[in-house]
Amino acid sequence: MKKLYITLLIISSCLICKAQLPPVFDAGRAAEAQSTETVRKYLSPVRILWKSADAGSHITNAETLLKKGKGQADLSGTDLCVLTSTVQGKPGILLDYGKELQGGLQLITDQSRGGKPIRVRIRFGESASEAMSSIDTVKGATNDHAMRDFIVSVPWLGKLEIGNTGFRFVRIDLIDDNAELKLKEARAIFIYRDIPYLGSFKCSDTLLNKIWLTGAYTVHLNMQDYLWDGIKRDRLVWVGDMHPETSTIAAVFGYNDVVPKSLDLARDITPLPGYMNGMISYSMWWILIQHDWYMHNGNLKYLQQQKSYLIPLLKQYAQKVDANNSEALNDAGRFLDWPSSENAKGIHAGLQAMLVMTLNAGSELCTILKDPATARICDAAVARLKKNVPDANGSKQAAALLGLSGLLPADKANAELSAGGVHNYSTFFGYYMLQAKAKAGDYQGGISAIRDFWGPMLGLGATTFWEDFNIDWLPNASRIDELVPEGKKDIHGDYGAYCYKGFRHSLSHGWASGPTPWLTEHVLGVKVIEAGCRVIKIEPHLGDLTFAEGTYPTPYGILKIKHVKLAGGKIKTTVSAPKGVKIIQ
């Protein structure tokens, strides 16, 4: 089988694996196609972004660090970057590796004078300004979850590998007076799953193409030991974050063991009647993921393994409806996303809608699992909830869920979402705002929102999508891949709120990948109708695009699709489906 070996410096070079996957409901469940192991790749920096003052007398031959390394110390004494400190000055250098990476740093040293280990300070950063910061700054830089600012001793004539975090930039400083460091190499250790990008998307708008790939790459970085929310912070299995991520994985990678492994972890550490991650909504996301993952993969055996947990959880949720037909989800944290977290009425409306969505999905799963009694319990609770339609209270998060749940007519939900354009969008719930627009038939509005909300992150130098973004941050904002010029705002350090203030803000967060599955589903037009992709409906919505083409991974192989807009607006569609997949057009 032909695999894709990612070249991180040019993400658009991703190739489509031509081999077919075995059906996941077969014994192997695509184990051969999707490795569960991570690999290590070593990357030299692409540029030196900064050197300390008086670098001319303290740093020599720094550009040699940009050469391709070998990872081996030697006795040649050639091609060395030499950093020398005095009592008056200690040199430092800032390296740029070109793209956000997950991993650490490899340092290869030569025979510096003194013949002893030398202390250096290492600072990783997702932005250039974060790598230049200290953990005691007022802009929120921390060592939470992953060490990014620390002092280590490097060997005399040897190798040291350090760090395990998300980063693009690394700053290296000598610590002691009158020290000399002869540095042969400073390579990034890139740790990732060596898996093919089976899904693809290309259209007449190069910005949308880049957004699709960036969302895919963001989630790919977070497919580590488990499916994390972010590679710098929090590096945890947050089940709400997982829903956009698993939607992206289905559209890009197809089946991967990291998904059931992470779902099972969340289940096993959360005995009922508890709620996953302490959030009342996150166990609902677990149910919704189980439904969507089954629809894509058709793995009944795995779904059956969830029955003993799923059924009591559904019954627990079905009981959370009060005499006024209102959600009574008060026994854990009431949360949609952080930007909406101070809008109590909006949260109530959102949870009412989420409970409807969850119980509807649960009813379908119960039917599949041959438990009609619990399906009826779910249906009865939904019927009661539909009698009470709370006001979204200005929350676009709540409006999106109300529209998706059917509590609010789709056109009315879309009207609330369209007010003010992408103002008050959020990176997590932006996916559901896009989905609600699609339900209302406003596909062009969704395409425009993707350009207007996710596009500016790329314009600021992003190579992955961020935990949070607000278009009000844009005026006079600096790029993340430059040192902040005088008079400009630091887009990373100056903004943020709640748990992501300043440099604590994650710049590679999987919940922000929503445009990737959305473009595949609604522009490329791929809609799974029967579990396991046995039946797929192709219904493209090109909006102002002239063509769209791509691929979609199914358990039977790769589905290939191309749409071309003809004169008069009619769309010509060409589909090549693997055996076992029925196409409806």
From TrEMBL:
The keyword Glycosyltransferase does not apply. Residues 1-19 form the signal peptide. It holds the Pfam family Glyco_hydro_78_N. SUPFAM superfamilies: Six-hairpin glycosidases (SSF48208). Residues 88-182 form the Glycosyl hydrolase family 78 alpha-rhamnosidase N-terminal domain. The keyword Membrane does not apply. Keywords: Signal. Coiled coil: none annotated. GO terms for biological process: carbohydrate metabolic process. InterPro entries: 6-hairpin_glycosidase_sf (IPR008928), 6hp_glycosidase-like_sf (IPR012341), Bac_rhamnosid6H (IPR035396), Glyco_hydro_78_N (IPR049164). Residues 198-387 form the Alpha-L-rhamnosidase six-hairpin glycosidase domain. This is Alpha-L-rhamnosidase. It comes from Mucilaginibacter pineti.
